[in-house]
Amino acid sequence: MDEGQARQETAAQRPARFRRAVVTGGAGFLGSHLCTALLEQGTEVCCVDDFCTGRPENTAHLSGRPGFTLIPADVTEPFEVPGEVDLVLHFASPASPADYLRLPLHTLDTGSLGTRNALQLARRHRARFVLASTSEAYGDPQQHPQSETYWGHVNPVGPRSVYDEAKRFAEALTCAEAEAHGTDTGIVRLFNTYGPRMRGHDGRAVPTFIRQALAGAPLTVTGDGRQTRSLAYVDDTVRGILAMAASDLRGPVNIGNPDEITMIELARKVIGLTGSSSVISFIERPADDPAVRCPDITLARGKLQWEPRIDADDGLARTIAWFREHAPAGDGGGDGAAAGAGPRPARPV
Ligand SMILES: NC(=O)c1ccc[n+]([C@@H]2O[C@H](COP(=O)([O-])OP(=O)(O)OC[C@H]3O[C@@H](n4cnc5c(N)ncnc54)[C@H](O)[C@@H]3O)[C@@H](O)[C@H]2O)c1
Fold first, then answer.
1. From ligand 1's centre to the CA of 9, what distance in Å?
2. Which run of H or of E encompasses 271?
3. To the nearest whole percent, how much of the chain has pLDDT over 90?
4. Most buried of the four, 32, 180, 263, 343, by CB within 10 Å?
5. Which spans does this entry mark as compositional bias, Gly residues (predicted)?
């Protein structure tokens, strides 16, 4: 058996080994789904969150469940959790452009000091550590699709740099920790993920379009709408993250859905699936907004036996159903996408 086969077999056997996980950012969108999935596979979970962008309601369904603890804490300060830990999933960070533009220094501190503190927690407990990095590490890419060997095209002083560079620094810190202290680390580069528990006003395209469509307001598409994203449904992304956690891989490994969609197609799809009478309006495109985004997932397919299973129609339908049921009254409306300027006059397309 060669080393590759041995690693794959180890990967296949590892999920059962985690007894207790710390999820930083566990009260956020992705973190709350990770907490739920871990508890369902029999892993106790300690969620650490400062609620700067997350919400206590995101983990309300877990409170009182055996094995679940919520610790309010800012990970930019050194932190410890009581009891044993054999997995640290470091997901704390503002993630939507609206949030990190509002919290630029906290975003940089969380990517740097917060990552260092989370790595030190993993080292003290000899735990597996997984960093949530991002496709933003590729910036406005000049290689398409993006594979893990691509170094990226990032503006280090642009408005998005607080997020992009914080994540790139966090990746460097994670690699240095593994080299210097032998800590068992992995890095996932997550591409755009959507699903239930996103905030209607967080500025990301899917929740913005759904909120607007359900309110009968114009869907605010930035630029000419021909820029692409590849959108993964949250259940697929969570499965990929847990496969990475269970593996011995250091990464980085891309986790995303390679089905690319233009923003105008996405807006039309949301209008169709919601049965909305909304029109589409075009607003200014934010600075340094990537023109294309699509993961090369050859590595995840080969090493983690992972690929997405849920297509856009299915995932969007599930997300729309959740928004219909849970979006608080008044969460719909006609404001622009948070990272753009005010809407130009609406026109049907
Ligand atoms: N959702 C995506 O499409 C996507 C894509 C790429 C990467 N990611 C990464 O995944 C992680 C989660 O993203 P999300 O979409 O769930 O965002 P989110 O804003 O919903 O969740 C982030 C959570 O981290 C918490 N947090 C932030 N700074 C903190 C700090 N200093 N101390 C403690 N808690 C802190 C927030 O309160 C929030 O609960 C982030 O690290 C993000 O960069 C997400």
1. 31
2. helix 263-274
3. 81
4. 32
5. 330-339
Give me the domain span that covers residue 134. Answer: 3-194+233-255
The ligand 1 atom nearest the CA atom of 136: 6
Judge whether 291 lies within some domain. Answer: no
* Rama region for 243: left / alpha / beta (φ>0; ψ in -120 to 50; rest): alpha
Ligand 1 pocket, 236 CB below 6 A?
Answer: no
- pLDDT category, 260, cuts 50, 70, 90? very high
Distance from the alpha carbon of residue 279 to the mean position of ligand 1, in angstroms: 31
Could you tell me which residues are beta bridge partners of residue 111? none
CA 217/CA 334 separation, integer angstroms: 5
Which of 100, 163, 194, 233 is catalytic? The answer is 163
* Whole-Å CA distances, 121 to 104, 112, 115, 242: 25, 14, 10, 19
Tens digits of residue pLDDT in 144-168: 999 999 999 999 999 899 999 999 9
| Best residue for ligand 1 mutational test, from 93, 100, 102 (most atoms within 8 Å of Cβ) | 93
Pairing outcome for strands 193-194 and 260-262: unpaired
On the CB side of 7, CA atoms within 13 Å amount to 14
Is residue 347 one of the residues assigned to a domain? no
Query: Distance between CA atoms of 209 and 225, rounded to whole angstroms?
Result: 13
pTM: 0.90
Three-state helix/strand/coil letters over 111-180: HHHHHHHHHHHHHHHCCEEEEEEEHHHHECCCCCCECCCCCCECCCCCCCHHHHHHHHHHHHHHHHHHHH
pLDDT digits (tens, 9 = 90+) for 132-148: 999 999 998 899 999 99
**At CA 204, angle to CA 277 and CA 145, rounded to 5?**
110
Q: Does any ligand 1 atom lie closer than 6 A to the CB of residue 94?
A: yes
321-344 mean pLDDT: 51
Tell me the CATH number at 130.
3.40.50.720
The answer to whether residue 226 is domain-embedded is no
Q: 199: CA distance to ligand 1 center in Å?
A: 12
Q: Is 163 a catalytic residue?
A: yes
